[in-house]
Design brief:
Chain A is an alpha/beta fold. Chain A has 13 helices and 12 strands. Chain B folds into 2 domains: 241 residues, MetI-like (MetI-like fold), CATH 1.10.3720.10; 263 residues, MetI-like fold. Classes of the chains: A alpha/beta, B mainly alpha.
């Protein structure tokens, strides 16, 4: 008993000592903080120059992040939220929990992107990924895909951000014809999974010919596994983009540190870690260029709806999707 | 009527946690009437859960009966392995099943050799197949315990009366099935009510949406807590309805006490031997081949496991052991109080089953909202996981203990009273030895459930502090499918070792 009181005392003293260094809390998704993700390198590089303690808090996947912010509301301990994407930023802005970032650094995205509340830190093109050794004729757009007998596995737009991205992709490319595309795709879709990892797992197990992922997915296999069999199908109607962003919470108690972190996101130290840890394109192309494989599958045309437009079409697009696929 | 203050306190705690946390989610906003799509989800949810429960229970009867009356090499191993599917992380179980029944699985390959098109597992049948795979072993084990609980003397009496098998079934096995099957069906039904990854992945599209998916969407994607609470309430009502239905058809078997000797259940020869063998071979193959596939996939990934996995494994085991201790303590107190018909036993009985009907996601969110104003949630990740896991596995442990606790009370209470056997002495000399088997099995199930649980930790985990299932999910989310399969194998092996350890202790300690 005495020992435990003593231990408690030590713990209190230790936490008081730690409290003297300012702590910047960044709320992000799971895979960012994983030991193989960007988190550890980013933390080391930022702490080397901020005289602070950078702490990541993981909140499930990307989709769950905004829910977590809303759940915590203004009482959140977090200072910065990193990991929302452009299909969620309108909803995020509408919560009124975010503050303007005031950053002036320029990004190198293939389409102009700027938002008063959010800075981009990486981005990617959604794409159907397949195995080159198994598919002879690769479809060049959704219509050809729907006409083929290729089997695909996709993610549910109600529970996953890539799934929502695909929904917006078809909508952006086909507009009012989107529901016909979904109806034609219905017999190609083997199944719909709750998240990206289940879909990708089914694909690698050979359950489907193609999976909805990113144009950079083959680069992972090439670099990390020396496996050159995967490729991304390039569609001539363009590829929808996912832009991942970070924003400062208005209720932060470390506004200066938060600003410093948002500026750090635009620096080479942050951007050079992204490509081979998050397997996305850095928002600012690093001085050393991009790793091998990142230039192999570059769509000619990029599609991206503005935050408000994405929010406006989402519910109707979802209803179309459900009606076309729920047989 | 006796008092049971301990049981009353535990029951009040359980009721407060389940109902209170659900209320916490609903608080602050009016309830929302479900959308038309929700009614479609509701129909699908009930239908697949009912089919899954029916098939799991029907198929378990011949398997359990064969296991109860046959002795063969590897019987113990088969019974132990029966625990394994139940413990698999959902996505791992799905991938194991797909290795057998998928488009590029063993069965499809065989069909291709015969010039036939590949099997399609995606659809309602695939959902039911997966749920039977996950739950058949559990029901089989529950029934097997029922068979073993019929006093051997009754079988010998039946044999000495030269009772034909039909009569033996009517007088001995039938009543036992009536006592055990409704409870088992309710457990499987409510388990399948909460399914969403299996249902969606194998269901083949949004037609296979369950209520739990709609809850997930409302909580994690749209953050509409009022809508989530309304949906959770519907799911809760379904679960509670199932429990009530289970009660209505439940009958006590009432075999009376035996001498507790372990004698083999009579094993008829002839075609029945062949039928039993067939049941065992089919069930064994159905359960073990996908497990083998999981094992093979995992072995390949054992080579490149990241270092962080071991810490995650350690956290998972610590969580599992702690929550098992809490669950079993609570379940034993509640089951004994209900068995002896203590004051308010009906209330206690209802409350002990309550967590079964509550969505883990709703519980987790309620807890998050409750602790948030006072503590950083990530500081509480592991204690909260322990608490929720203990709460969620309580109904299983309680259901496993109750029938035997009732039999114990009916058969030994008068003897114990005449010997003035009370308190700790009664627990030590009577309760624990006589209930060793369900206690061991219940602890095994609770430990394994807790090892594999992924519901709550995702809400609370911080930078570190991931449990092994979360770690597996993070690996899969980073393209590292092989390492994920390896880590999943470690998870399954550990859950299984914990399960086999507790179950083995229980079986060995049983008289």
């Amino acid at each position: 008993m005495k020992a435990s009181i003593l231990a408690l005392g030590f713990a209190t003293v230790a936490s008081m000592a730690a409290a003297e260094t300012p702590v910047l809390t960044v709320l992000t998704y799971d895979s960012f903080v994983a030991e193989w993700g960007p988190g550890p390198a980013v933390e080391k590089a930022f702490e080397a120059k901020c005289a602070c303690d950078l702490k990541f808090v993981a909140a499930g996947d990307g989709a769950a992040l905004l829910a977590r912010v809303q759940m915590e509301g203004a009482q959140s301990d977090a200072d910065v939220v990193l990991g929302l994407d452009t299909s969620l930023t309108a909803a995020a802005t509408a919560t009124g929990l975010f503050a303007p970032h005031g950053q002036t650094w320029a990004n190198t995205l293939p389409v102009p992107y700027s938002d008063p509340d959010f800075v981009p830190y990486d981005w990617g093109w959604f794409a159907m990924v397949y195995d080159k050794t198994k598919i002879a004729t690769v479809p060049k757009n959704f219509e050809e895909l729907a006409a083929s007998d290729l089997k695909i596995v996709i993610q549910d737009p109600r529970s996953s951000t890539p799934g929502l991205g695909l929904l917006l992709w078809v909508k952006a490319a086909y507009g009012d014809k989107a529901k016909d595309i979904w109806a034609a795709l219905a017999d190609n879709i083997v199944t719909v999974t709750p998240g990206w990892s289940e879909a990708y797992g089914l694909f690698t197990e050979g359950e489907a010919d193609m999976v909805l992922s990113y144009t950079t997915s083959p680069a992972y296999h090439l670099i990390a596994e020396q496996d050159d069999t995967k490729a991304a199908a390039l569609f001539d109607e363009g590829h929808y983009m996912q832009v991942e962003v970070a924003g400062k919470l208005a209720a932060t108690d470390q506004p200066a540190l938060a600003d410093q972190f948002l500026a750090f996101i635009g620096s080479d130290a942050f951007q050079s870690t992204i490509a081979t840890t998050n397997w996305m394109y850095p928002a600012v192309t690093p001085a050393a260029g991009l790793p091998e494989g990142f230039d192999r599958f570059r769509p000619a045309k990029s599609l991206l709806m503005g935050a408000d437009e994405a929010a406006a079409v989402r519910d109707a697009a979802l209803a179309e999707w459900q009606a076309a696929l729920a047989k | 009527m006796s008092h049971a203050p301990g049981a009353a306190v535990i029951a009040a705690l359980v009721a407060g946690l389940t109902l209170g946390l659900a209320a916490m989610v609903a608080a602050g906003a009016g309830s929302l009437w479900p959308l038309p799509a929700d009614w479609a989800a509701l129909r699908f949810t009930v239908w697949q859960a009912a089919l899954s429960a029916a098939f799991s229970c029907l198929l378990a009867v011949p398997v359990a009966r064969a296991l109860a009356r046959r002795r063969f090499a590897g019987r113990g191993a088969l019974i132990a392995l029966m625990g394994a599917p139940f413990l698999l992380p959902v996505i791992v179980a799905v991938l194991g099943l797909l290795a057998v029944f998928g488009r590029s699985g063993v069965v499809s390959d065989a069909l291709a050799l015969a010039g036939l098109p590949p099997l399609s597992i995606y659809g309602l049948h695939g959902v039911v197949l997966a749920h039977v795979f996950l739950n058949l072993p559990l029901v089989t084990r529950m029934l097997l315990m029922g068979w073993e609980a019929i006093p051997a003397e009754r079988f010998r009496l039946a044999q000495s009366l030269a009772m034909p098998e039909g009569a033996m079934f009517r007088h001995l096995e039938g009543p036992m099935l009536r006592a055990v099957l409704p409870g088992a069906a309710v457990v499987v039904f409510t388990l399948c009510l909460g399914s969403f990854a299996v249902a969606l992945t194998l269901g083949g599209g949004p037609g296979a949406t369950t209520v739990e998916l709609a809850i997930y969407q409302a909580l994690r994607f749209d953050y509409a807590p009022a809508r989530a609470a309304a949906l959770a309430l519907i799911q809760f009502a379904l679960g509670a309805g199932a429990v009530a239905l289970g009660w209505a058809v439940l009958r006590q078997a009432g075999f009376g006490a035996g001498l507790g000797r372990r004698l083999a259940v009579p094993a008829p020869r002839g075609w029945r031997l062949g039928a039993d063998a067939l049941a065992l071979v089919l069930a064994g193959g159905f359960l073990l081949v996908p497990l083998g596939a999981v094992g093979l996939r995992g072995l390949a990934g054992l080579g490149d496991l990241p270092a962080g996995m071991w810490a995650a494994l350690g956290r998972s085991v610590a969580v599992a052991l702690t929550s098992t201790a809490v669950t079993m303590g609570a379940a034993l107190v509640l089951a004994l109080a209900v068995a002896r018909g203590a004051r308010g036993w009906r209330f206690i009985d209802a409350v002990a089953t309550l967590p079964l009907a509550v969505s883990g996601l709703v519980l987790g969110t309620g807890l998050f909202l409750t602790v948030k104003p006072w503590v950083r949630p990530e500081a509480l990740a592991l204690p909260v996981t322990v608490m929720v896991n203990a709460l969620l596995s309580l109904p299983y442990a309680y259901r496993l203990l109750l029938p035997e606790a009732r039999a114990l009370h009916a058969d030994y209470d008068r003897l114990a009273q005449s010997l003035s056997l009370r308190g700790m002495a009664r627990l030590r000399w009577l309760v624990v030895p006589r209930l060793a088997r369900p206690i061991g099995f219940g602890a095994g199930v609770a430990a394994a459930l807790s090892m594999g649980d992924l519901g709550v930790i995702t809400l609370f985990a911080g930078e570190s502090g991931a449990t092994l299932p979360l770690y597996v999910q993070r690996l899969m989310g980073a393209y590292r499918m092989e390492a994920a399969a390896g880590a999943a194998l470690v998870l399954v092996a550990t859950s299984f070792a914990l399960f086999a350890l507790f179950d083995g202790i229980g079986r060995r300690a049983a008289p």
